């Protein structure tokens, strides 16, 4: 099966041996995004609201580079450093999806996230 690598300078460069996204079999698999500024690589915000906004901007940039947008997202996974942030993250996340057609989602609390951020989100989208 062939696949193609998706990359954009409008989202943070990977901090390890992975790509921002991979397209294969009509699907786009977007790596987990954290609240990194794509220009200078610094963490944006100290609170979960600011970090979630940046995560969603980073995801949007990668999706755009793949030629899709939020309506094509079919699955997300939200990783939280503290499940007490669920409501705040959910309020911001909800701004990006129509409730009637929102993607499937999992949300888990984890012991630690890269660079000690508060939230990380990945997604899967359907290519046009």
- The percentage of residues in β strands lies in 25-35%
Low-pLDDT parts are none
What spatial order of strands do you see in the largest sheet?
Answer: 1-2-3-6-4-5
Distance between the termini: 18 Å
Shape by Cα distribution: globular
Structural class: alpha+beta
How would you sum up the major sheet? Answer: 6 strands, mixed
CATH architecture: 2-Layer Sandwich
Average of pLDDT: 97
**How large is the count of helical segments?**
2
CATH class: Alpha Beta
Question: CATH superfamily name?
Answer: RutC-like
| Percent range of helical residues | 10-25%
User: What is the number of E strands?
Assistant: 6
Cα-atom Rg, whole angstroms? 14 Å
**CATH topology label:** 60s Ribosomal Protein L30, Chain: A
Structure description:
- This protein is of the alpha+beta class and 128 residues long.
- It has 2 helices and 6 strands.
- The protein has a single domain (3-126), classed as 60s Ribosomal Protein L30, Chain: A (2-Layer Sandwich), CATH 3.30.1330.
- 21% of the residues lie in helices and 29% in strands.
- Strands 1-2-3-6-4-5 form a 6-stranded mixed beta sheet, covered by helices on one side.
- Helix 2 (86-94) links the parallel strand 4 (73-80) and strand 5 (104-109).
């Amino acid at each position: 099966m062939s696949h193609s690598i998706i990359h954009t300078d409008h989202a943070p460069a990977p901090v390890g041996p992975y790509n921002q996204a991979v397209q294969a079999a009509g699907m786009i698999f977007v790596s987990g995004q954290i609240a990194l500024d794509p220009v200078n690589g610094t963490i944006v915000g100290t609170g979960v609201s600011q970090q979630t906004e940046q995560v969603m901007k980073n995801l949007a940039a990668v999706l755009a580079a793949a030629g899709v947008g939020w309506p094509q997202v079919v699955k997300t996974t939200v990783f939280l450093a503290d499940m007490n942030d669920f409501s705040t993250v959910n309020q911001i996340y909800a701004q990006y999806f129509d409730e009637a057609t929102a993607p499937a989602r999992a949300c888990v609390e984890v012991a630690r996230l890269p660079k000690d951020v508060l939230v990380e989100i990945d997604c899967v989208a359907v290519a046009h």
